[in-house]
Fold:
Amino acid sequence: MECHWGHLFESGVQTSLKLPCTAWLFYGSTLRMEKDLAGWHTLKAEINDLHNSPTFQQREVWWCSIGVNIGHEEDGKGQYYRRPVLIVRKFNQHVFLGVPLTTQIKNNPYYHRINFKGREQCVMLSQLRLWESKRLTASMGKLAQSQFEEIRQAIRKMI
Structure:
């Protein structure tokens, strides 16, 4: 099975990649997702070759190609392996500290509830990590200052 797309990003970078899609496989009686590591590796190489990085700021939420990761690290979804990511700290035009968002609401210390764009979501505090800005594909907006401060406090408490 393979997927084909004509655009890599909303920014207009063109590609004609054909990559395998993620497949669901049965292992005994358990349905398990087979991760598309090869497809992600191909797209990751394309992202690495990009010459321009978008302009971004702290508190912004962006669609970010976070990829296919190992074990319980959060994966991106869809053909671009994307997920919304909140920019917590901008170090320079190329590198930032960010946390992925999810619409799965969980009540535990590693998930912090927010309301973004009229939708209840959670910031996955335990998935905090350093990102390269080339992974950012489309801005979704800016988080309210009060919510952003709550997240920063929750991160401080966690670490």
